[in-house]
Design goal:
The chain is an alpha/beta fold and about 325 residues long. The protein is built from ten helices and 13 strands. The protein has three domains: about 30 residues, no CATH class; about 220 residues, 3-Layer(aba) Sandwich (Rossmann fold); about 70 residues, Arc Repressor Mutant, subunit A, CATH 1.10.10.
């Protein structure tokens, strides 16, 4: 504890703990935010959800926004120095970086660095190397917890405790915020996998789920702030080299309350059900209008010469009625 906060009420017994009056507590440092009301300075956070839902893309997007000092889903961000540890899949990172640069047309942030060394957060020697590395930085992303602590039993209180002790050392000795990417538990998509001590230790928990056919995130429990509403986004496909990668793009339109009315025609019901199946049941990250029309046409009950026309008409009627949204690039989202 800094000498500034040494208490006048400390007893003469040298072995005793330092005590503070309420007036002295009022002089302690207050909660300070890197992302307003979402991510605190000198804290721990976790972005979690089921596999293949877009957690790593969301974490990389947040890292970019922090390094650039740009708002994130409308939340004010303080510019800072960031390290992103791509422990799980470093080979995919070059394409993801190219996709961000190609889409936004801006240089990579100067204060964003990457780490691909295999970490072991349960090993004190590795923790010391991390501390030596992140000194002078504000945020460390670790994608994923499992890849950075590969030898531990996530369900063991003792082994998870060793990891958490190491993480606490990083935060205390460097002042860095540590943000994990992690998976949800097998028995439910709204809880963290592994021992409950990890979830309890996180200052902020960000759950990634699907909402209206798209991935979305929301704060589901934090120590010094409130939970948030869902924030939907799309994984925009961007051409890089000889293939495509994805970039997070926030959706400004929010899902409408469930409509009391239903689509007017059987063809509209077919198209809407097809959209829901493709985006939700099949787990697609995005859906373009051409694919929706083509897949729906196969199910339209009319002669084959007119199936596509009827599917196009039904899709357009759904758009006008507010059941679906089609953006400028042709991507479809379900509104209700």
């Amino acid at each position: 504890m800094s000498e500034v906060y040494q208490s006048r009420t400390q007893t003469a017994r040298s072995a005793g703990y330092v005590l503070y009056t309420a007036e002295e507590v009022a002089q302690w440092p207050r909660v300070s935010w890197l992302v307003d009301n979402i991510i605190q300075k000198q804290s721990s956070a976790v972005i979690y959800g089921e596999s293949r839902i877009g957690k790593s893309f969301l974490a990389l997007d947040l890292a970019y926004k922090l390094a650039h000092g740009e708002s994130w889903f409308g939340y004010q961000v303080q510019a800072c120095k960031v390290i992103f540890c791509a422990a799980e899949s470093p080979s995919g990172l070059p394409d993801r970086l190219d996709a961000i640069k190609n889409l936004h047309g801006q240089a990579h942030p100067e204060h964003l660095c990457f780490l691909r060394t295999q970490l072991d957060l349960s090993d004190p020697a590795h923790i010391q190397r991390v501390i030596d590395t992140v000194n002078g930085f504000d945020v460390l992303f670790i994608d994923t917890l499992n890849a950075a602590a590969p030898e531990i039993d996530e369900n063991s209180a003792k082994e998870m405790g060793a990891v958490l002790q190491g993480v606490r050392r990083i935060i205390d000795e460097t002042g860095c915020t540590v943000i994990f990417v992690h998976h949800c538990g097998w028995s439910g998509h709204d809880r963290l996998r592994g021992h409950s001590s990890f979830s309890a230790a996180m200052d902020t928990r960000i759950l990634v789920t699907r909402d209206g056919g798209h991935p979305s995130w929301r704060v589901k429990g934090q120590r010094e702030g409130a939970d948030t509403e869902a924030h939907r986004y799309v994984l925009r496909q961007v051409a890089v080299s000889t293939r495509n990668s994805c970039v997070v793009e926030a959706l400004t339109a929010k899902p409408a309350a469930k409509l009391l009315v239903q689509p007017r025609s059987n063809n509209q019901k077919v198209v809407l059900d097809t959209a829901k199946w493709l985006l939700i049941e099949a787990g697609r990250d995005s859906l373009d209008i051409e694919t929706l029309v083509s897949e729906s046409a196969k199910k339209i009950d009319t002669d084959s010469r007119h199936q596509r026309q009827r599917a196009e008409e039904a899709a357009d009627s759904l758009r006008k009625a507010g059941f679906i949204r089609v953006d400028e690039s042709g991507d479809v989202s379900i509104i209700c």
